[in-house]
Amino acid sequence: MRNALKLALMSFSMLGAANAWAQVPALANCTRSANLLACVDGEGNAYSVNTVGSTIYLRGFEAIGKRYWAQTNSRYGQLTFFTGIASDGEAWVGYNRRVGWTTINRFSSSGGSSAKFTCSRIAGC
């Protein structure tokens, strides 16, 4: 779960940082329309990011765990709250807070995982 969620959070952060992100050959094959970004990586993981106003919907498939997951993000200024659920019943909550060029991310899940990590446009995560 931690890798799938971290991938989703990093993808969300990259989406905000690079609006014109249409394809990243080394990481994933992506297709983009006005409101939708859909990607598949070389390991068989797939995810999509759909934007509707200030709400972002993420959906995906984690190849290693063979499970589907969905996450909804609600943005309020520099703060984004998210909740998600996976096909095996695991649920998670968390937030992202943007401070300058840095994003502070925190989450916890019903599976016992929790983490806090920081991402920077310059240094990455």
From TrEMBL:
Gene source species: Pseudomonas azerbaijanoccidentalis
Keywords annotated in UniProt: Signal
Protein name: Glutamine synthetase
Range of residues in the leader sequence: 1-22
